[in-house]
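Supplementary Note 2. Why include the ligand at all?

Several targets in our set were suspected to adopt different conformations when bound, so apo predictions alone were not considered sufficient. For every target with a known small-molecule partner we therefore ran a joint prediction. The input for flavin-adenine dinucleotide is given below.
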Amino acid sequence: MSISHDVDVVIMGAGPAGSAAAVTAAKAGLSVMVVDKATFPRAKLCGAGITPRSQTALAEIFGVEMPREITLQSTKMGFHWDGAVLAEFDQPYEFKYTYRMDFDLWLLGLAREAGAEVREGTRVEEILDDVSTLVLGGGERVRYQVLIGADGVASPVARHLFGKAFDTETIGFAYETEVPVPCADDTRMSIDFGVVKWGYGWNFPKRDSQTIGVVSIRGVDQDLRAVMHRYLEHEGVDPESVTIKGAHIPFGDYKEKPGRGNILLVGDAAGFVDAITGEGIALAMESGAHAAQAAAQVIAEDRPQRADRAYFARVAEIQADLAKVRQLRVIAYSSKTRGMFKEKLATSTRLRDALFEVVRGDASYADIEKRMAKHAMVKVASKLSVWPSILSRRAKG
Ligand SMILES: Cc1cc2nc3c(=O)[nH]c(=O)nc-3n(C[C@H](O)[C@H](O)[C@H](O)COP(=O)(O)OP(=O)(O)OC[C@H]3O[C@@H](n4cnc5c(N)ncnc54)[C@H](O)[C@@H]3O)c2cc1C
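The joint prediction is reproduced in token form.
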């Protein structure tokens, strides 16, 4: 077998997870190749809300702030319930809104500048893990010491490791559209927890549009497309006048062992998305950086097959928080507690502050749970004996 390339780390996928892994690995002195089947700029269905936690990850991993020209910023926020306004307020942190077309292109440029070799428009055809080699489209063979699967929710790397990328019942699904109404800085974003079961609707302000969408768990019994139409009507948009697209999102469906040997899964490929807020960009960048650090450690020790252990230890905290949020979301989304959640959204600054601390990365869900334990919500939740069976199952892996 002729090898045309021999690199320390190959990263499959050039979204936020892949670029974060690439920058971190290159800064650690490793040789890095990033391979993506798409040519950038490429579309990715996403609200592209860049939370304070994502902004921190950008600063810590890439050492940058978002450029003004691809950013709209706002502190204004509203909670809605099936179209009715529950609360409108200024939150203490700035949210940034962008387009993934711009954001991912910018991050990939930073990965290139850091020294990563980038192959766009190149599919990975085969993973030969017994010889740690990838076969790229065109037959080129690349040998790696560590392979990082940053290849999104339908991850071919996860499929290679576990036979499937996700569980079709527990995975999330989202519909989204761009409504061509340009927004200014400080335009209010809104979240509607009442329009859909086990999820929410969002309306994010963007420079050239509003991004409107709904997300839920795929296995929940409801017509999500009809819900999307209803939500658009609430937001003053004729559903027939826009193009609606759908995509899977790992909404609570994370992998307990995201990798095997010298193959690691990061970002959506590992299912690292917050099961209440749907935020995945911060966790994608954080887990990408963790995987690259793990790779640097085991390559230095000349033990690349132990990359999984080094990585699992680094992401244990993320996973513990994802487990906690999956428990806590029953309060937000179960029919038994929804009424109380609605009331708290309208009136409780404590709940609001707690949510913001999480999206800022200042508190974990475990911290929030401890605080909430003093209040009635958790008492009610602990009495819930019946969980939807689909939620008790976990993605294999
Ligand atoms: C509708 C929707 C709205 C969302 N809104 C938000 C939000 O507002 N804020 C937020 O924080 N998160 C949001 N998320 C979640 C967020 O989009 C993801 O968590 C994030 O994109 C994960 O990044 P990633 O790098 O892991 O994967 P991705 O961004 O999906 O990148 C994966 C890359 O892998 C490449 N790839 C796939 N297969 C191959 C292959 N065979 N060979 C080579 N390359 C391959 C793809 O082309 C792609 O570029 C949203 C998700 C959805 C679906």
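Residues 327-392 form one domain. The chain has three domains: 5-64+100-166+257-319, 73-94+169-249, 327-392. Comparable summaries for the other entries are listed in the accompanying table.
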